[in-house]
Amino acid sequence: MSRKLTVVFLAMLVLVGAMSLKTVVVTHGDGSVVMANGGAPQPPIPWKNGGAPQPPIPWKNGGAPQPPIPWK
Amino acid sequence: MLGPYEYVIWLICTLLEASVLVCAIRKGAFRRYFLLNFYMATSVVASIARYKFLHDFGFNSREYIYFYYYSDALLTVLLYFALSSLYSHVFSELKADRYLRMGTIFLLSGTALFSYAVVQQSSAKLVTHFVVELSQNLYFVGLVLTYVLWAAILKMRETRTQLIQLVLSLGVYFSLFAANYAVQNLHRTSGSFLEALTPLFGCFLPLSWAYTFWHVPEEARTVPSRLAVVPR
């Protein structure tokens, strides 16, 4: 029984270590992913923009230059 | 848009993956390291299929994007099992197969549950989110497991050169991708150069495994534990 618990504990430890390492590596990431299988060119992430160019954010000001904040 | 560089690297990488299988079969290591070779064989098939999708539908097509990420998740799971088979080789004398299998399945399930917990709030494309997240997390689990295995090799004074080289190659391979990704995010100005290196790193694992199978005989022995001794 104790051996089984040791295996479970070690597996949890590895999982925690791996996720901590992932956090460190992707801290300053831009949402892209690490792909490490084969040499095929990596396409954009499916939910990022599906290949189409990303439109401007609707509430940003529609392209007009942003004025200074009135109360500054 | 893909240029000749990407295609050439991709072709070289696929040929190297096929050469791993050839070297393993010629040197009689195919069955001994079956899961490693199965991973390489699947990777060759995936490369050919990816090329087919790319050729038929284009780089930014949904077909290529989905096939790429789903096949990548499958390959990562296979690489994870290949890594667990290396654990079986290292711990073969301890007769711990049952516990290794249990640990492998438990860790895979834990990673899948964690990945689901991360993506469950995504309302759209939940399965795709899950597949990519699982692939990412398994990649980092594999990275940690490889270093744990290396520590076990040092501790247990494993002497089989072929096995040691296979594990070390995997460690370097995982580390190259993680380091490249981290540096890319830190220094975005040199991003394009570092991005160009990524597919090149993909050639490292098949190259080193093919070299190991071809040049290192099964009976070759080395003493890695001496590397860890600090002279006083």
Short note summarizing the structure:
The complex is a heterodimer of chains A (72) and B (232). Chain A is mostly helical and 72 residues long.
Structure report:
The complex is a heterodimer of chains A (72) and B (232). Chain A is an all-alpha fold and 72 residues long. Helix content of chain A is 33%, strand content 0%. The longest helix of chain A has 24 residues. The N and C termini of chain A lie far apart (67 Å). Helices cover 77% and strands 0% of the residues of chain B. With 232 residues, chain B is an all-alpha fold. The longest helix of chain B has 30 residues. At the A-B interface, helix 1 of A face helix 1, helix 2, helix 3, helix 4 and helix 5 of B.
Q: How many strands, what sense, and barrel or not for the largest sheet of chain A?
A: none
Q: Low-confidence stretches of chain B at least 5 residues in length (pLDDT < 50)?
A: none
Total strands of chain A:
0
- How much helicity do the residues of chain A have? 25-40%
Strand fraction of chain A:
under 5%
Morphology of chain B: globular
Task: State the secondary-structure class of chain B.
Answer: mainly alpha
Gyration radius over CA of chain B? 19 Å
- The CATH architecture term of chain B is Up-down Bundle
According to CATH, the fold-level topology of chain B is Rhopdopsin 7-helix transmembrane proteins
Averaged pLDDT of chain A: 69
Computed over alpha carbons, the radius of gyration of chain A is: 22 Å
Number of helices of chain A: 1
Number of domains of chain B: 1
Low-pLDDT parts of chain A are: 49-63
